[in-house]
Amino acid sequence: MEYVALLIDFILHVDVHLEAFVRDHGAWVYALLFVIVFVETGVVVMPFLPGDSLLFVVGALCGLGFMSYWVAVAVLLGAAILGDQCNYHIGRFFGPKVFQWEHSRYFNRKAFLQAHEFYEKYGGITIILARFMPFLRTFAPFVAGVAAMTRIKFTMFNVAGALIWVFGIVTAGYFLGSIPFVQAHLDKIIWALILVPGTLVLAGAWQARRKAAAAVQ
């Protein structure tokens, strides 16, 4: 429980902890950033690690001179791209094993073909938009692998999504993080970066469930 409490405190006060880490360990912060983003995007069981809030705080610290903007962006890009690729290949590995259960209600050949068709048509925009959504950011590349989305197509949109996500949020933090109002309310901004996308995901899932239930009736 102590480790869980520490993790929650890090997520909610990532600005304080990251700044302290830079002061105490210097350039090792880039290794820490790589691990956090790679695990959050590359390990399907770790969707709760900070994503958007972490990138914004990194940008703010770069703007204040604590870190190098270009080194941070390069490290985060590498972690985001490699993380999604790892998650995708985990899905590719488990997909054929899962969908061979012909008598399963959800994991059968028909379900696989439907998922594959969806990702071939809409997988690109799904991968890009999921970058900005907690939980979906972790699960979308895994499901793309399970659905056997074309490797080249996945990689192309993975890179595009990572570029938009990392450059967009880090740059926003870089230019906005030095504004006194933002500094004074950074804790609220972190909460917003966590809660707003999460709420949108839950609302979308609830609406999709209602539509599915209505279709059955």
UniProtKB/TrEMBL annotation:
Membrane topology: Multi-pass membrane protein
Keywords of this entry: Cell membrane, Membrane, Transmembrane, Transmembrane helix
Source domain of life: Bacteria
Compartment(s): Cell membrane
A GO cellular component entry from the record: plasma membrane
InterPro entries in alphabetical order: DedA (IPR058127), DedA-like (IPR032818), VTT_dom (IPR032816)
Residue stretches making up the VTT domain: 49-174
Principal location listed in the UniProt entry: membrane
TM stretches of this protein: 27-49, 55-82, 157-177, 189-208
Family designation: Belongs to the DedA family.
The protein, known as: DedA family protein
